[in-house]
Amino acid sequence: MSERFASVEDVTDQLAAQGYLASPSVATTVFLADRLDKPLLVEGPAGVGKTELARAVAQATGAGLVRLQCYEGVDEARALYEWNHAKQLLRITSGRGETWDATRDDIFTDEFLLARPLLQAIRSEDPSTLLIDEVDKADLEIEGLLLEVLSDYAITVPELGTLTARHAPFTVLTSNATRELSEALRRRCLFLHIDFPEPDLEERIVRSRVPGVDDTLATSLVRVVNALRRIDLRKAPSVSESIDWARTLLALGAESLDEAVVDETLGVLLKHTDDVARARKHLQLDEADVRR
Amino acid sequence: MTDRVSTSDSGAGSLPGRLVAMVEALRGHGMVVGTSETVDAAQVMGVLTLADRDLLREGLAAALIRRTGQRRVFDAVFDVYFPAAVGARTSVREDGADDGTASPTARPRGVDDVRDDLVEALAQGGREALEDVAAAAVDALGAIQAGSGPGAAGAGWSARQTLEQLRPQTAIVRALAQRGSTAGFGERLDRDEVRRDVERFRELVQTEASRRTAEVRGRDRVAKYAVRPDASQVEFLAASREQVLELRRTVQPLARRLATRLSARRRRRNRGQVDIRRTLRRSMSYGGVPLNPVFEHRRKARPELVLLCDTSGSVAGFAGFTMLLVQALRDQFSKVRVFAFVNHTDEVTELVTGGEADPAALAERIAANANVAPWHASSDYGRALRSFVTRYGAVIGPRTSVLILGDARANHLDPDLDALRDIVGRARRTFWLNPEHESRWGLGDSVAPAYAQIVDMHECRTVDQLSGVVGRLLPV
Ligand SMILES: Nc1ncnc2c1ncn2[C@@H]1O[C@H](COP(=O)(O)OP(=O)(O)O)[C@@H](O)[C@H]1O
Ligand SMILES: [Mg+2]
């Protein structure tokens, strides 16, 4: 049982010190992942702070972040390790006149091994934080590999033997849920769904990320964003959009939000033109046009 | 003030016992909770102090929930097994005594008093205040006596009775007036928020009524009957009018998820095979050893989709939901056409596109405006399939996926298997989605087994099952 954090409150404080404002559910789950020694599977819409959470935990615990960014087609060679073929070829062709057996023994050593994130985290001398980001983007086959690694934090390289982690890393997997992860992988993890934050938390996040924004502006900004999240949009604005919007408003010198300001800057918040149209309708910005 | 977990009520059993019972209840609502999850949950209870109920809730959620979307059911069940207090709790916050023995409120309150409090809470806009009003409302208005009311088996607390008397929506106007919002933009936001809070309040009343009832009738019973199943678990064939409306609200979010899934699958498929020529060219830098394969990227036109739905009687809700879903997914296909039948097939693509998005209303619109039952009102699968082939057979080509929806209850008439064979023969893929439980296929007048010999038939009783077929199997 590891004890990176003393209590749930301690998690909240330490993450806050790194600029990450954790909701009670985030803080509780991080605390439990540490105590129960389980990887944390974080699911939720884009831009709610999943990746940032792993980064903040790494900083708070002083355990370097090792990140495996998943994408379609990511494979063992990119996730685990691969042999540096080019270098091996050079070594072979530069032949030193020794037997093939000797050469073979030589080219399958550490020197020719390219450690990818999973192996890096396992071999790390110091405690590390392992972030497996956007697992849902990888193909299903990679999950078998992840399960293997996450079950005992050991990796077998046939030519080198089994490498076991000195310190089991604090592991965070994130997913935007574009595909169902396997039941087995889910079962291995504690589950955390991060949703859009409660308004007062989001206000605090915005104010801490964009220091020039005052209380009133932050409050009304978050109110508008929440109103938009309640309507059917292709892409609801996330925390990252709230932050971008606050920056824009600050740059424009807007001190309060009225129809005209919202109308002009809606494009920062919404990415699709039909979303913008729908939002204008919902907030009745069209009527503002008529009045102006 | 943080709520503590109430551990003092009689007959509660030990905490581990309560956890096990809660796990049972979650399973009863379709959540897969294995031993490893239960063990994790027990560990969570060991690591967290029970003094903070909110943290315990989050901790147990982390151990027991495995996917997004299970949270509402989890919360409702948690509230039954780990209630915030015992008995009436209106006074709990007031006098600060939280020893679980709070007595019923001293002052009896009437509908108007409670509504005044609700107006106040809505005007202030805070969750705690709403919780308090919900507790007071159920206490004052929700009591039902044993044997009273139609079909009432025993005493308890009713959310419906509470809400019918209170009519929370009537508090909206007054709350807005009290907020004193400035006309225009601010007022619109206020209205939006107050409406959302009224929705929340209804849920809180439901929670409170379940909690109180659980004390009278026992937790297991309440967890089983009073917790609303997840919309994705509701059986199409058994859905109430209310549930159908709720299903409607899930169409857009579900369509969004499915669209992402379909395009991810499309991208993956397009990744294609190794491009030998480019791989060899790239390999020149490694002395001719092909180390880095280059993949071809294939671009293919999107598939076409034909939906053929039985819109008779009880299956109409299922058909309506699926039509709306497919409509919302239309970007994913190069063409979508929708057909409906009872005993004759007619095209309804236009009817699905226009008008209100309510599955039940859609079925009525089809019955009124399309020629689906020219001779009599009962189903005739054979004739319907045959008329589809005759009138619209040319619609199906080698890029078309066909989804046929229906319970395959042929009314003891000729099922016309050849008509179905004809459809399957023309299409790229054909799926039959049957809203009946697989164990009922073939019973009575169901010809499902005969059709299933010809076509890939899937049980589709719930939204979950439907989205599985659409998201995983439909060609992209
Ligand atoms: N709780 C939070 N505290 C501080 N910043 C946050 C929080 N949540 C989100 N953010 C900010 O929002 C942005 C998006 O976060 P990110 O981790 O990239 O989202 P995700 O990985 O979920 O898509 C980042 O700039 C991050 O700093
Ligand atoms: Mg991210």
From TrEMBL, chain A:
SMART domains: AAA (SM00382). It comes from the Bacteria. GO terms for molecular function: ATP binding; ATP hydrolysis activity. SUPFAM superfamilies: P-loop containing nucleoside triphosphate hydrolases. Residues 36-200 form the AAA+ ATPase domain. Pfam families: AAA_5. PANTHER family: MAGNESIUM-CHELATASE SUBUNIT CHLD, MOXR FAMILY PROTEIN. This is MoxR family ATPase. It comes from Mumia zhuanghuii.
From TrEMBL, chain B:
Coiled coil: none annotated. InterPro entries: UCP010256 (IPR011195), Uncharacterised_CoxE (IPR008912). Signal peptide: none annotated. Residues 93-112 are annotated as: Disordered. Transmembrane segments: none annotated. This is VWA domain-containing protein. It comes from Mumia zhuanghuii.
